[in-house]
Amino acid sequence: MVRPPYPSLFWSFLRIGAGAFGGGMAALPVFEAELVHRRHWLTPVETTETYAISQSVPGVIIVNFAVLSGLRLSGKRGALVAAVAVALPSFFIILALAALFTGHWENRWVAAALSGLRPAVVAIVAGAALRLGRNGFRSPLFLLAAGASAGLMLSKILGPIPLILLGAAAGLAIHFLRRKMEAAP
């Protein structure tokens, strides 16, 4: 793989940061559009794996993704460039909103605009979940695990953190079992 030059990496992650509205899950289509389809730096599977790891560790998902992708693409400096670039648009947008709307959050026009954004964000998150599933479910076992996890979380039996830990433990157990079976004569 050819390492992308830092200016290209910076502009790509700046575009991602500027177009990723609605949080980490909603950013997945933007990651794919820029890094997989436009730049061809990552494959869909690499994007899904990096995204899954980004969700599994503390912090802002989009920044976690930028760090991991930048590290994969251009090493430690690439991780720094990607993280700074992806965070800049949000920083300036929040700064502008704070300056414009200080004391006006209860304004009916502002409230109406924010309530109109909610359904769009739900649709973006649902689309991202379907993309993750398409790239991540390579066997019926994965589909079954996803369904069981969704059921456990929606019924409030387990929260996201225990599910992430259980998923990581299950993945490691399956990996070790496969290696043990491959090593056996």
Summarize this structure as a short list of keywords or feature phrases.
185 residues, mainly alpha, 7 helices, globular
- The number of distinct structural domains comes to 2
Strand content: under 5%
Tell me the number of helical segments per DSSP (H or I, 4 or more residues long).
Answer: 7
Total strands? 0
Low-confidence stretches: none
Main sheet overview: none
Q: Structural class of the helices, strands and pairings?
A: mainly alpha
Could you tell me how far the N terminus lies from the C terminus, measured between alpha carbons in angstroms? Answer: 36 Å
Fraction of residues in helices? over 70%
Shape: globular
The sequence of SSEs as H and E is: HHHHHHH
Oligomer: single chain
Q: Quick check: average pLDDT?
A: 86
Radius of gyration: 19 Å
